[in-house]
Design brief:
Elements: H1 5-13, E1 30-32, E2 35-37, H2 40-43, E3 68-70, E4 78-80, E5 93-95, E6 102-105, E7 108-116, E8 121-123, E9 125-133, E10 136-143, E11 151-158, E12 165-171, E13 177-183, E14 194-197, E15 207-213, E16 217-222, E17 225-231, E18 236-237, E19 242-243, E20 250-258, H3 265-271, E21 282-294, E22 342-343
Parallel strand pairs: 4-5
Antiparallel strand pairs: 1-2, 2-22, 3-21, 5-9, 6-7, 7-8, 7-21, 9-20, 10-15, 10-21, 11-12, 11-20, 12-13, 13-14, 15-16, 16-17, 18-19
Bound molecules: 2-acetamido-2-deoxy-beta-D-glucopyranose.
The site of 2-acetamido-2-deoxy-beta-D-glucopyranose (NAG) has 5 residues, from loops.
Length: 345
């Protein structure tokens, strides 16, 4: 339902200060990062905080996995999250940030990063899949933005609530490398990042990067060749008695972000710095296709891209929790919500 500004003012006056209980009302039921509202930017599973939303059914449910190939032949393959009506079969990916630095061009998804003078750093883009995935094989055909120090391109599967994450990342400092990583419950352990050689400049040509995720192991592949295998059995932590292994449902996320001007030393040294910027510099990362093969499902039936998919994104950083993967990317906070959000007191 639509909320009017008059109504918003009224709800604002009634905002509850109780923490840990429902803080949103039925007119703006979905809670995200301090605000209540009605649309996808607030209600989408993974972004919406159920514990502070109006009731247990307010946040949208996870969409589940659908095997498919997204070719980015249609402009509807990605839509700004503020315009997303909630049908994952209509839009495979959602652009999370505003302004929207994504577009479909020449049958590729283009993610752009431009200069934000006020912040003295790049403002990038993140595309998240409208479907979720819990185990399966996801391949992205990527031409990275590793054109300059500090520019980070990423392709990950992420659950922002649990902090589970499986990553491919490319940094401008090492254009011939791809780095793999994973996080369990957001524990920041950077010793698990491993670089691999792509064989050539990752920004010069497309390559296929695959995350093959099962209950027993994760295999990362480049052009169908395994470059790393993580066995769940090897993640056992005797001190806690748990396997520090990503298991929870997530979204595919594709991103470009500025690590070099992030202001975080570890991230800057990792990505290269400073990122070269002038007022009209634009860095671009390209995604030709994203292929999703759900665990236990059939192989993708066609190259039709009007179906759905699942993306997610993140970077990795020293202080980011595994949940947003990175931390360097622009924050996911909605900047220009369509409706007038109700700030919590
Ligand atoms: C949650 O709120 C909706 C909308 O007001 C209502 O229809 C539904 O019955 C509520 N569900 C629960 C479990 O309280």
């Amino acid at each position: 339902m639509k909320i009017t500004s008059v109504l918003a003012a009224a709800t604002l006056a009634m905002a509850s200060t109780t923490f840990g209980q429902s803080t949103c009302n039925e007119w703006a039921p979905c809670y995200r990062e301090g605000y209540c509202n009605t649309d996808a930017a607030f209600c989408l599973w993974g972004l919406c905080d159920e514990s502070k939303s109006y009731n247990s059914t307010s946040c949208w449910k996870p969409e589940g996995c659908v095997s498919k190939v997204v070719n980015f032949d249609s402009s509807s393959d990605i839509v700004p999250i503020g315009s997303y009506a909630g049908n994952p079969d209509t839009n495979a990916f959602l652009s999370i940030f505003e302004p929207d630095n994504t577009q479909v061009s020449n049958s590729n998804l283009e993610l752009r990063m431009t200069y934000d003078a006020s912040a003295n750093k790049g403002f990038g883009a993140t595309a998240k899949s409208s479907h979720t995935i819990q185990y399966g094989r996801v391949t992205a055909r990527v031409k990275t933005a590793s054109l300059a120090k500090g520019v980070v391109t990423s392709f990950i599967i992420i659950n922002e609530q649990t902090g589970d994450e499986i990553d491919f990342e490319w940094v401008g400092l090492n254009p011939d490398q791809v780095q793999t990583n994973y996080y369990y419950k957001g524990v920041l352990d950077y010793t698990k990042m491993l670089p691999a050689n792509v064989g050539s400049d990752s920004s010069a040509a497309y390559h296929d990067y695959t995350i093959d995720w099962s209950e027993d192991k994760i295999v990362w592949l480049v052009d169908n060749k395994p470059i790393r295998t993580l066995n769940r059995a090897d993640t056992y932590d005797a001190s806690t008695g748990v396997y520090a292994y990503p298991t929870t449902e997530g979204r595919i996320a594709l991103s470009i972000w500025d690590g070099g001007n992030s202001g975080q030393q570890g991230t800057q040294e990792w990505s290269g710095y400073p990122t070269p910027w002038s007022a009209d510099t634009v860095y671009k990362a390209y995604f030709d296709t994203v292929t999703v093969e759900c665990a236990g499902g059939s192989t993708p039936s066609s190259s039709d891209d009007s179906g759905s998919e699942e993306p997610s994104q993140t970077g990795k950083d020293e202080e980011s929790s595994g949940s947003d993967g990175g931390s360097h990317e622009p924050t996911g906070a909605p900047e220009n919500p369509k409706c007038i959000p109700r700030p919590l007191v």
